[in-house]
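Students often ask why inverse folding is considered easier than folding. One informal answer: many sequences map to the same fold, so there is more than one right answer. In these notes we will look at a single instance of the problem. The structure comes first.
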C-alpha cells in the first residue's frame, strides 16, 4: 500500500519530537533522492541552492513554480517524507508566504521552511515584527491542511551579515510564538551558540 501524505507527515513530525538528533540530507534531484533513500536516511529536504544549480542558476534565482516542480520530483522519488527549502516564501507579504505553504502541500511536501532574509542586499533581513507576521501567516495556513505539516522558521542573521546571537535568539523566540514547529539558525559559529539557541526555545532546533 502506498504511503500517504498524512503518514509521511506523522513520521516527519515524530523525527523532530524524538529524543535524538537526526540527519536530513539535501538531494539535488530525483535520482539523488533515490540514492539517499537507499542509504537509509529517514527523511529528505530540498535545498534552494541545489534546486538552482540543477537549472544552471545561483541560489535565489528560482521561481516558486520551478522550486515546487523540483520538490514534486523529489517527493515522487521515494516514500520518504520531504520538506522543502521555500526561501522567503517567494514574496514579502505574509499572505504570499501562506499561499506558498498551501502550494507546497499540494505537491506532496510534508514540511517547509520560511526564512527572514529579504533577498535585497541593501536590507538583507526583514525587521523582526514583519518576519514574525510572515511566520504566523504560514503557520495558520499549515494548521488548516488536515495533516501535521511541519513549518520551520529560519533566522538568517549569520548568513546575512548580522552575526548577533542575541538577535538570532530573539527572532527564533518570536517565530516560536508565531507558531513555527521547528526553528533553524544556519551558520551558528560554534557548539556554545548551538547550545544557547536550544536552551532559549522549546521547539526542536
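Output (designed amino acids):
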Amino acid at each position: 500500500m502506498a504511503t500517504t501524505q498524512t503518514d509521511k507527515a506523522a513520521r516527519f513530525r515524530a523525527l523532530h519530537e524524538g529524543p535524538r538528533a537526526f540527519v536530513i540530507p539535501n538531494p539535488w534531484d530525483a535520482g539523488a533522492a533515490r540514492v539517499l533513500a537507499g542509504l537509509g536516511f529517514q527523511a529528505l529536504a530540498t535545498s534552494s541552492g541545489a534546486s538552482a544549480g540543477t537549472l544552471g542558476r545561483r541560489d535565489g534565482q528560482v521561481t516558486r513554480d520551478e522550486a515546487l516542480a523540483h520538490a514534486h520530483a523529489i517527493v515522487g522519488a521515494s516514500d520518504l517524507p520531504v520538506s522543502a527549502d521555500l526561501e522567503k516564501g517567494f514574496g514579502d507579504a505574509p499572505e504570499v508566504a501562506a499561499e506558498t505553504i498551501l502550494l507546497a502541500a499540494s505537491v506532496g511536501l510534508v514540511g517547509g521552511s520560511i526564512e527572514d532574509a529579504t533577498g535585497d542586499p541593501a536590507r538583507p533581513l526583514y525587521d523582526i515584527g514583519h518576519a514574525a507576521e510572515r511566520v504566523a501567516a504560514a503557520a495558520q495556513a499549515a494548521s488548516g491542511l488536515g495533516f501535521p505539516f511541519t513549518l520551520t522558521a529560519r533566522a538568517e542573521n549569520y548568513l546575512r551579515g548580522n552575526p548577533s546571537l542575541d538577535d538570532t535568539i530573539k527572532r527564533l523566540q518570536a517565530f516560536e510564538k508565531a507558531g513555527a514547529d521547528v526553528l533553524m539558525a544556519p551558520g551558528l559559529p560554534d557548539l556554545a551558540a548551538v547550545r544557547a539557541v536550544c536552551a532559549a526555545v522549546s521547539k526542536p532546533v
